[in-house]
Amino acid sequence: MEIVKYEPIYYTQVNDIYEKSFPQEEKYITLDKMIQSQGSELYCLVDNEIVLGIMYLIFYKDMIFILYLAVNTEKRSKGYGSYLLKWCLEKYGDKKIYLNIEEVKKEFKDYETRKKRLDFYLKNGFFITNYISKEELENFNILSNSLEIDINQYKILDKVVAKILDEPISNIVKR
Fold it and tell me: Of 41, 38, 90, 103, whose CA–CA distance to 68 is shortest?
């Protein structure tokens, strides 16, 4: 099992994981655009030519934004997501690493799913920051691999992410 940069031979498997893992409203970018975008990298967790999981990272200076982390639906709950995160934290541990997840509140009908996702990231070395990314349809908790973040630097990273995704800049507010 190894983590490799995306290669065209994995296109169908990666696209299948992407399509099955995210609801339509969270597919901010096509796989083709991910592959072609400057300042980003798509990694694949591969075992015997089978793609077990993917991680799409956007880079800016000493910061990284994890836009997508997904595991093949048939291979979940086997530690592959944790393996990808551990690899990322080891490889890029000298950088500030961020990701966003939906707010976790009991009033949401998918509260248990959101809570499970949050617990997964907390278990794997991430912390909830004191900031929320407010977007048109959803609010997102901003998580980081560090307890201390420079919100002004994060806002710069957010602009880079928005440009790659051709999306509006998020409204970042204190929780």
Answer: 41
